[in-house]
From TrEMBL:
Disordered, as annotated region: 1-41
Family (UniProt): Belongs to the SMC family. SMC5 subfamily.
Organism name: Gadus morhua
Stated name of the protein: Structural maintenance of chromosomes protein 5
Superkingdom of origin: Eukaryota
Compositionally skewed regions (Basic residues) per UniProt: 1-10
Coiled-coil annotated residue ranges, if any: 232-298, 327-423, 650-736, 855-889
Lineage, uppermost ranks: Eukaryota, Metazoa, Chordata, Craniata, Vertebrata
Length: 1071
């Protein structure tokens, strides 16, 4: 141990006070340099090391001051005494976030219970004057900062801490208890960044960040160059295709120019033809004038004669119209009489048709009379053949009596069937929608809800459950699903006690009866399927029936009403494990009364762990002073076990449903028997009814025959009574026809008179029509001759006028067209006739039309793109040159960063490998990157091997065990210790998962490394130490004690304490 004359290093903490020797003034007024000067070792602390930590009303401390040493500081104390509180004070006092600690997200939660304010003060070593940081916190989640006695903001404190190379957010420097497991979960990239910040030169992490930014800029330049090059290539290809279009454009333009020239020569040829025609037209015009004059002289007499004929035709046409009207009137009257004659003829036909119908009725009547007489004769013969029959009445009465008996039996069977059917319907309704089915569905739904919650919280465990259900046949012993599913609390209020008492890793763990089953399961699920699951082995000897140390009745006076074991149901193996591991059979649960009597409760022996209504109490008794200390915590609401299914009740409900189904089956069998009896009765009834029907028919046959004969005789008399008299009917018919014929004769006389009148009128109309036709023919001839002369006259006049206009227009047209024509020399190579010109013009037009799909702006677009291509080539050259220069600069920056980093990784690897070899294990650290240029993908890869039979495996959160991860983490941090650029390092309870051998080896490495003069300050927090460990003089051991009997800081006397120890050793020394 370090000499006490060198430095006061031993501190003791109590629940009410903490004592240290030579405690400096707290919260202002301190002398920063006095602490180091009094040591006589001004160079032992590196800049940024912690000289003093003072806590007031902070977590478990009312008042405490810790004076750590310059090298390894071993903070030792039982669980709950306040070791991690010192870690929290370091983090929060140096402007760290509450999330780094994993204890709570609000600063007010770190104030001591029962107090409204607390404070932390940390003194840091610094050349030229120490730094004192004070943070006062309140339950309102407010903080007040002072730096060297002056009020300031948190930002100022953060800058000061950063300037001293302190990084409480870096797990390579500051590893609290709740974050130990997260170190192995860090990715390679995160581990590299944390290592750079922790042990690398100050500029290393900056270079790394710059390289990542440079790489991003390089990608942007590469993408820009590639895009420009691709665009340039596309532009060149486009212009090559446009060049062909441009040549076609010029070819088409040549044809269009030829067409324009041909169009301009056509007027020359047309003018020459028109000029020659003009001369002949002049001569014809004179001849037309003479002939026109003679025609006008002969046209007048014809018009006068046509007018005379029109005057004669008008009275004749008026007479024709009158005669035509009279003829139509006579024809109308004649047609009316003909219609009347037709109606009279139809009347005669109707009379004859009625007579024929009467003849037909007479024939049918005679046939019916004959048939009726035949039927009567047959019936009388049958009646004569029917003799005396025996009396069938007694047999009919016997059959009726038997049928009534069968009817009563059927009624009884129907009633019995109705009763059975009603009972069955009730049973079916109760089975399908009754309480039992509803309750069973509720239980299944609750199990589904529990599985859904587990799937959300821990998907790997849910996947493993599915695998187990499909492969349960692979295991020889009992395999239980996680306790979250098989453990059912009897009351949802009990869930928070059970869930708080049992660790979540056990709640989601699979419990095995046999070890070989557990190993096979983990090999399949963890190694092959890569699932993160927990497995538990049930005790070899069942503890399910273990009895509590005291009956619950003896504790009811304190408000206890049950042991934890009685609050839930679970399979026997699960209960055995919980009794063995968690002593659930001996943990009592109380009420608010227990809380009120807690001071008396904790004095009871054998009560080490208890629950009140809302809190959990852990009771510890000192082995030295027999004083009792407690550690209480608030119960958290249950997240999983509030949903519970009573397995016994579920079995009872399923048995109830099975009984109900069995009763329904019995009722179906009884109902089938009744249906069979009913069917037999129905068959017998049918036989009796048929027999009775035959007897009744035999008894009533004679009476029926007599009734039929009487009915037929009545029918025959009625037919003879209603016979038709044909002679009288024929005479009446002849009389009616004669009267109608007389009317027809009178009508015919009138029709003949009208016909004669119409004939005379028609002859007169014909005579007038012939006279009109003669006059009309003469008129038509004269009008035709006149019209021919008029047409000829108009034609001659129009020809004369057209000839004059054509001559004038031709001269005028040629004068206008000649203004736009080219010189005569341009036409010398072209044809001189219109036919040849049109043929050549059509040929040129066809050729020009063959050039389709040519845009008018193709030439302009080609020239514009040529300019763009030139500009792009210049721009691409500049960008390529810039990219080359940028890559050269990046290469220089890479050398500045990568070479020192590789050297640093080699140093870490040497120390890490050396530490592992000292433990007969293998460990390597290397710099890993998938691509050398991807600087954001660089990372540190840690590979370890703890057994000779295995290969090197990368350190992950899943492959190694908890102890192996802790050893690897600790040794990596120790490898950084000698290279450390940070002023101090904090590691909290990392040795919890190690076995004794590895713990001793790791402790020796920590002491050997952290106590070198070249290393910085190191805080190692642990609740326990093995015996016979090796210690160094440079170590500082901080022992933390907790309890109400602790002395106040002012009463502590170290010399008196040492004297008492010496006297005790003297008394115990053997004589």
């Amino acid at each position: 141990m370090a000499d006490r004359s060198k430095r006061q290093r031993i501190s003791r903490a109590a629940s009410t006070s903490q004592v240290t020797n030579n405690v400096p003034p707290m919260f202002g007024g301190s002398q920063p340099d006095a602490r180091v000067a009094s040591d006589g070792e001004p160079g032992s602390f590196v800049e940024g090391s912690i000289l003093r930590i003072a806590m007031n009303n902070f977590l478990t401390y009312e008042l405490a001051v810790v004076n750590p040493g310059a090298n390894l500081n071993m903070i030792v104390g039982a669980n709950g005494t306040g070791k991690s509180s010192i870690v929290c004070a370091i983090c929060l006092g140096l402007a760290g976030k509450t999330a780094l600690l994993g204890r709570g997200d609000k600063i007010g939660l770190f104030v001591k219970r029962g107090c409204s304010r607390g404070s932390i003060e940390i003194e840091l070593y610094k050349n030229g004057g120490n730094v004192v940081i004070n943070r006062e916190i309140s339950t309102e989640n407010l903080s007040q900062w002072t730096l060297n006695g002056k009020s300031c903001s948190q930002k100022v404190v953060e800058e000061e801490v950063k300037g001293l190379q302190i990084q409480v957010s870096n797990l390579c420097q500051f590893l609290p208890q709740e974050k130990v497991g997260e170190f192995a979960k860090m990715s390679r990239i995160e581990l590299l960044e944390a290592t750079e910040k922790s042990v690398g030169p100050p500029e290393m992490y900056t270079y790394h960040c710059e390289l990542k930014n440079f790489r991003g800029r390089e990608r942007e330049l590469e993408n820009t160059v590639n895009e420009k090059a691709a665009f340039l290539e596309r532009a060149k290809q486009k212009n090559e295709s446009n060049k062909l279009d441009m040549n076609r454009y010029y070819e088409k333009k040549r044809h269009l120019d030829m067409i324009e020239l041909l169009e301009k020569k056509k007027p020359w040829v047309e003018f020459e033809a028109v000029r020659k025609e003009h001369e002949s037209v002049k001569t014809e015009r004179e001849e037309v004038k003479k002939r026109l004059s003679s025609l006008k002289q002969t046209h007048g007499p014809m018009l006068k004669k046509i007018q005379l004929i029109n005057n004669q035709l008008e009275p004749i046409e008026a007479q024709i119209k009158t005669k035509t009207f009279d003829i139509k009137e006579a024809a109308r009257k004649c047609k009316a009489r003909r219609d009347q004659l037709d109606r009279k003829q139809k009347e005669i036909d109707d009379i004859k048709q009625a007579l024929n119908l009467k003849h037909t009725e007479k024939v049918d009547e005679e046939k019916r009379i004959a048939n009726t007489k035949t039927i009567i004769d047959d019936l009388q013969k049958e009646l004569a053949t029917v003799g005396e029959q025996p009396d069938v009445a007694p047999r009919i009465d016997a059959i009726s009596v038997e049928l009534r008996g069968h009817q009563e039996e059927r009624a009884r069977l129907d009633g019995e069937k109705s009763d059975i059917r009603r009972e069955k319907d009730n049973m079916v309704a109760e089975s399908k929608s009754g309480f039992a089915h509803l309750r069973l569905n509720d239980m299944n739904n609750m199990m589904k809800a529990k599985e859904d919650k587990l799937k959300v919280r821990h998907k790997d465990t849910f996947t493993a459950i599915q695998w187990l259900r499909q492969n349960r046949q692979l295991f020889s012993g009992n395999v239980h699903e996680p306790m979250l599913l098989v453990l059912n609390v009897k009351d949802p209020r009990f869930a928070k006690y059970v869930e708080t008492h049992i660790a979540f890793n056990d709640l989601r763990g699979f419990l095995f009866e046999k070890r070989e089953d557990m190993e096979a399961f983990m090999k399949e699920v963890r190694d092959k399927l890569k699932l993160r699951v927990n497995s538990i082995l049930a005790p070899a000897v069942s503890c399910a029936n273990k009895q509590p140390s005291r009956p619950i009745e003896s504790l009811k006076r304190f408000g206890f009403y049950s042991y934890l074991r009685e609050m839930f149901d679970a399979p026997t193996d699960v209960v055995s494990y919980l009794c063995h591991q968690y002593n659930v059979h001996d943990v009592p649960v109380g009420t608010a009364q227990t809380k009120a009597m807690i001071n008396k409760v904790i004095e009871e022996p054998y009560l080490k762990l208890i629950y009140t209504a809302e809190e959990r109490y852990v009771v510890k008794k000192s082995m030295y002073s027999n004083h009792v200390s407690t550690n209480n915590s608030q119960l958290r609401p249950s997240k999983f076990l509030t949903i519970s299914v009573d397995a016994e009740e579920k079995g009872q409900v399923e048995q109830q449903i099975q009984n109900c189904e069995r009763k329904i089956k019995d009722l179906d069998e009884r109902l089938a028997g009744l249906r069979e009896n009913f069917s037999i009765l129905e068959g017998r009834d049918n036989e009796l009814r048929n027999e009775k029907k035959g007897l009744l028919e035999q008894k009533g046959k004679k009476r029926q025959l007599e009734q039929k004969i009487a009915t037929k005789l009545d029918s025959l008399q009625q037919i003879e009574k209603n016979r038709v008299d044909l002679k009288k009917l024929e005479e009446d018919t002849k009389t009616k026809i004669g009267a109608v014929n007389a009317q027809k004769v009178a009508m015919m006389v009138e029709v003949m008179a009208q016909i004669k009148l119409r004939a005379s009128l028609s002859m007169l109309k014909v005579h007038l029509t012939l006279q009109t036709l003669g006059l009309t023919a003469e008129k038509t001839h004269l009008e035709g001759s006149c019209k021919d002369r008029q047409v000829e006259l108009r034609t001659l006049e129009m020809n004369r006028m057209n000839s004059c206009v054509l001559c004038e227009c031709s001269v005028h047209w040629f004068s206008e067209e000649s203004q736009g024509l080219v010189s005569v020399q341009a036409f010398s190579t072209l044809p001189d006739t219109m036919e040849e010109l049109d043929a050549l013009l059509n040929e040129e037009c066809s050729r020009a039309e063959g050039f389709t799909g040519i845009r008018e702006n193709v030439v302009e677009e080609y020239n514009r793109r040529e300019v763009e291509i030139q500009n792009l080539e210049e721009e691409l050259g500049d960008l390529s040159e810039a990219l080359t220069t940028y890559r050269m600069n990046m290469s220089e920056a890479k050398e500045r960063w990568l070479n020192p980093l590789r050297t640093l990784i080699c140093q870490i690897n040497e120390r890490f490998g050396e530490y592992f070899r000292s433990m007969q294990c293998v460990g390597e650290v290397d710099l890993h990157s998938e691509k050398e240029e991807e600087y954001d993908k660089y990372g540190i890869r840690i590979r370890v091997k703890f057994h000779n039979s295995t290969e090197l495996h990368e350190l992950t959160a899943h492959h190694q065990s908890g102890g192996e991860r802790s050893v690897s983490t600790m040794l990596y941090l120790m490898a950084l210790q000698e290279l450390n650029r940070c002023p101090f390092r904090v590691v909290d309870e990392i040795n919890q998962g190690m076995d004794p051998i590895n713990e001793r080896r790791v402790f020796n490495i920590v002491v050997r490394t952290a106590c070198k003069e070249t290393t910085s300050q190191y805080f190692f927090i642990t609740p326990k130490l093995l015996q016979d460990l090796q210690y160094a003089e440079e170590m500082t051991v901080l022992c933390i004690h907790n309890g109400p009997q602790m002395l106040s800081p002012g009463d502590w006397d170290e010399k008196a304490f040492l004297r008492r120890i010496a006297r005790r050793k003297k008394r115990t020394k053997p004589e």
